[in-house]
Specification:
single chain, four-stranded antiparallel sheet, 39% strand, 5 helices, alpha+beta
Length: 249
């Protein structure tokens, strides 16, 4: 949005005085408290100072540096105790394999622990399914392929349920976008002030508008398993800021 306001206070005041004088000559005795005649120029305090209002935009592309991998194990057995025990053993094996692959213990989080009957012909129970899920945070993307291969190598119980990529420091990206947005707003304001025959004054107000922070990029598990190399892609970060400047004309 671009808006330029220019007060013509001197001309407005002169016109008002001239009109008042004409009315006083032609309409002697008229009530001085009567309403201003239609079409009479009026100057208001809101006309000062002359202003230029602009909206600046700042955008940049950032490369995610963190991967979140949803994995786990799933076991089917004849009894609930057997299914649950085997699932817990498989989960312990998966956890140890991930630690051996260099994953920090604080980057492992249990996300699922379930046990349920399996029906081939309801209500006849054919067995029991037990599962345990884990979220793996990979902070070194050069190690991402190794982590995926480690999960797959655990055995037929292993499951890959999806992956997402994100930025570890959203704040730095947003600060950079704000810098670009404000610089863009100032450049626009300077241009329009010059076109109006003046120079740019001080900032009057600043209002941040639309902000698009980095968002996690989701991929299906099948896409991850088929890749020979994990690629995080890029994410767009954008900020819009409205700035009102005074103008000197």
């Amino acid at each position: 949005m671009i808006k330029i306001s220019h007060a013509l206070a001197v001309a407005a005041a002169a016109a008002a005085i001239a009109t008042a004088g004409m009315c006083g000559t032609a309409l002697a005795g008229t009530d001085p408290g009567a309403a201003t005649a239609p079409g009479t120029a009026r100057a208001t305090a809101d006309d000062y100072p002359p202003k230029v209002t602009v909206t600046g935009e700042g955008e940049l592309l950032v490369t995610p540096d963190v991967m979140r991998l949803n994995a786990g194990v799933e076991v089917r057995a004849d009894t609930p105790g057997q299914a649950f025990s085997e699932a817990r053993q498989a989960a312990a094996k998966l956890t140890q394999a991930l630690l051996d692959a260099g994953v920090d213990p604080k980057d492992l989080r249990t996300t699922e622990l379930s046990l349920a009957p399996v029906y081939d012909d309801y209500p006849k129970i054919a067995g029991y399914r037990a599962a345990q899920g884990v979220e793996v945070v990979v902070r070194d993307l050069d190690n991402a392929d190794k982590v995926v291969d480690t999960i797959v190598s655990v055995g037929p119980e292993a499951r890959l349920n999806g992956v997402s990529f994100e930025l570890s420091d959203n704040g730095a990206a947003l600060r950079a976008a704000r810098n670009r947005a404000f610089a863009d707003a100032k450049a626009r304001a300077q241009q329009y002030a010059g076109l109006a025959g003046g120079t740019l004054g001080d900032v009057i107000t600043i209002r941040e508008q639309d902000v698009t922070p980095p968002r996690p990029i989701m991929f299906a598990a099948a896409g991850v398993a088929d890749r020979s190399s994990i690629s995080p892609g890029q994410q767009n970060v954008s900020v819009h800021v409205q700035v009102v400047y005074s103008m000197v004309l």
